[in-house]
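Issue 218. Parser rejects a valid record. Input:
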Amino acid sequence: MDTQWEAPLTGSDRHLHKNDLLSLRTVDEVAAEYGVTRQAVHRWLNDGKLEGKKLGGVWRITLHALNEFSFNNQKKRKRSIQRSKTMLTPDEVAAECRVGAACVRKWLNDGKLKGTRLGGGVWRITREALSEFKGEVDLFGGE
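Output the parser choked on:
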């Protein structure tokens, strides 16, 4: 006889079976495995990023939920790393051009260097835009 636990997991219609009960992890175990604080794990659970269920007022997380969480975060991390390789901050452009960040911001505000304003004064510049800018401007006065 296959017994089913009737309370659904948070954010899902999936039900726990007796096999899932053997693979439950505590918040402390998840925090130790991911090298984060208990508060971080609680935030993931409360935000619905990590599936879990409260048993007797204590969060429990299945291995299936942890595997899904890890897979989703790996994909996000890869996208973030890919974006970071193609988008530069004004400080990174300044270091590459051997000028101050204020100079780079002036180029951006004057439209000399193409960039994307993300809001709050935050700029990002593509490598292509920087290469194009370097080809048009003599940064070192004929050196």
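Fixed in the parser; the record now loads. The CA atoms of residues 24 and 68 lie 14 Å apart.
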